[in-house]
Amino acid sequence: MDPTESSVIDTPFDAALSERYLVYALSTITARSLPDVRDGLKPVHRRLLWAMRLLRLDPAGAYKKSARVVGDVIGKYHPHGDQSVYDAMVRLAQDFALRYPLVDGQGNFGNIDGDNAAAYRYTEAKLTPVAMALMSGIDEGAVDFRPTYNGEEEEPEVFPGLFPNLLANGASGIAVGMATSIPPHNVSELIEAATHLIDDPKAEDSALMDFVSGPDFPTGGVLVDSRESIANAYATGRGSFRLRASVSVEKEKGGGYHLLVSEIPYGVQKGKLIEQIATLIADKKLPILADVRDESAEDLRIVLEPRARTVDPDLLLESLFRLTALEVRFPLNLNVLDANRTPLVMSLKEALSNWLQFQFEVLVRKSQVRIGKIDDRLELLDGFLIAYLNLDRVIEIIRGEDEPKPVLMEEFKLSDRQAEAILNMRLRSLRKLEEMEIGRERERLAKERDELQKLIESPARQRTRMKRDLAAIKDQFGDDRRTRIEEVAATREIDWSAMIEKEPITVILSQRGWVRAMRGHVALDDAETLKFREGDALDTIFHAQTTDRLALFAANGRVYTLGGDKLPGGRGFGEPVRLSIDLDAEVEIVALMVVRPDTKLLIASSDGKGFVTSGVATLAETRKGKQLVNLRTGAHVAVIRVIEEGADTVGVVGENRKMLIFPLAELPELARGQGVTLQRYRDGGLSDAKAFRLADGISWALGGDSGRTRTETDLTAWRAARGPLVACHRLDSPARISSTKRQ
């Protein structure tokens, strides 16, 4: 290489990256992840079945080692890892994964518990009748072949068989920027819908619902969506299906009962499902459930024991559907490759119509190829008949001429193929009986050719033939639905507190944010006996129940919800509350308290803004919490106070020790916001605020070590309109109405 030359190509980085990534994306979409609408297979599945066919692994034949199949596939057709190819083969053999398995496996091919298959050196496999039907016609010139990746072999571009594999077995895959998820269906329903489309190509999507009522999963279950929801998913090609386990209530002697699960949702591993239910029991998240037992043998059987016979079976079922994989949502994304290998999201009608269009093309192409073969045979038969009619002269030419072929062609007007065939005839074929047989064969082939020609020229004949062939497929592979369709109402709201054993607890929060819950209601006067980490001390202590929901208010205006049953135990120092919520270490905790839906709270920020909110507005379902107070720059949440019943007045005091009294009705009730101005300040900010009954007056500490308080019932001197710059009188004590901590 010339040292002056460089192998570095000068091109913009974004252009080079986008070009290469686009090539990768297209390869992933068209050659790996999306199925073809014509045969419903991805390349790896198609290559697996093709390799097994070439190995003569027919249903009536013997099994062969899976390792042999995998070796042929990765060596000849699919240059990828052996494990990925074997995993694809295993799935084709699992009757709980495919509605109509394409591989007949012998050995351990995994199970519904979630156990993996044995290594491919231990298992054996052959094709199923469904796979043979899917490849039917491949030797009749129905589809094109293409060279394999190394050019040494050929493989079919698609399988021509009449079995509707795409929708019958479904598919799933993740490509680049797109994905596919197609549930399995009942082949009898699909063929009935396809037959209807043959008779009425303009039929609406909704009309197909009279035939295809919904997915039909191999593991059964109950589809609980409405007909409208299913129809909308099929019409758009996108949606989801709500699938439940098949659960029955089994009565016992003495008035008790248990729940029996006989079918679980598609794709759910039985072992993980039982583990999930057992975890709920162990963590006491579902106290109305006492036990779960796996009594499965050949048939699936999971027994669920309620805590007591008085437990409502419907409530227990609804709770299990909400909390476990006894109810799942199976997505529908009918994203497939069309005949031009273009990815498209199709409706149910479009998928069936594209498949039927391909099958009509296969029918015509097979007929044309057959006509070509018949014409070739008729050409030879015509030559044989000429030879029989002129047998003596033919024999004479053969015996007398050095080059008999040209003479035969010249004298009897034969083609090269006819002359060659006559010269290759055996003497035993010169029997009279053979001549009669050739005549009958020619008559039969001519009749067959005439029928095929009529079929090619007549769309009506094609439709009739297609319906007849589809009926044969239905008779061979059709069966009853396994998944029942029972529309039910949306899952009702459940009072989850009823699922938690109600026990008294004492909640303790330290100044450094460590939280714990002691069992029982500890005397609050004994707080001095509590132990904390070095440098830490008590911040908040209060009584609650395990069924209570606690609201933690942060200085940045966010609020977080903690379950009383999920707090760490009272032994030791507890745990940092920031482990349970997403709260930065530098953000101060303002308050922690029990909040119920009907609770009213007074919220005030350091810049004198405030409003009233409800307990419902403080509930946050995620670790991130929710923003409750919109703060101005430099401000923080200063006061969180529960508004007691009967309170009609608000008292606000600033750091300047000036107090203001005004009616509570002047504050708006907001679910989120900044609020209105409670009090304005030239310097400093808000120190404290409280809602109270005006008739009861208000008290505040006098300061110092005396522990005395001052109580005023005549608050006329401090009453004014909300928000003046200067209050009427300065307080004679530190600027606190009372402690903002709940004790």
Level-1 CATH class name of the largest domain: Mainly Beta
Beta-strand level of the residues, as a percent range? 15-25%
Cα-to-Cα separation, first versus last residue: 85 Å
Biggest sheet strand order reads 14-9-8-17
Number of strands: 34
**CATH H-level superfamily of the largest domain:** DNA gyrase/topoisomerase IV, subunit A, C-terminal
Give the averaged pLDDT, no decimals: 88
CATH topology name of the largest domain, in short, is: Neuraminidase
Q: What is the domain tally?
A: 4
- Separate helix tally: 17
Structural class: alpha+beta
Enumerate the spans where pLDDT stays under 50 for 5 or more consecutive residues.
Answer: 739-743
CATH architecture of the largest domain: 6 Propeller
How are the secondary structure elements laid out?
Blueprint (H helix, E strand, L loop, with lengths): L12 H21 L9 H12 L9 E2 H12 L4 H12 L9 E4 L17 E4 L1 H6 L10 E3 L6 E3 L8 H5 L1 E4 L4 E4 L4 H13 L5 H4 L13 E2 L3 H10 L1 E7 L1 E6 L5 E7 L6 H13 L6 E6 L7 E5 L6 H11 L3 E7 L1 E3 L5 E3 L2 H42 L1 H10 L3 H9 L3 H8 L8 H26 L1 H19 L6 E2 L18 E7 L3 E6 L18 E8 L3 E6 L3 E6 L11 E2 L12 E6 L5 E6 L3 E6 L11 E2 L9 E6 L6 E6 L4 E5 L12 E2 L8 E7 L5 E4 L7 E4 L31
Parallel strand pairs: 8-17
Antiparallel strand pairs: 1-3, 2-3, 4-5, 6-7, 8-9, 9-14, 10-11, 11-13, 12-13, 15-16, 18-19, 18-20, 19-23, 21-22, 21-24, 22-27, 25-26, 25-28, 26-31, 29-30, 29-32, 33-34
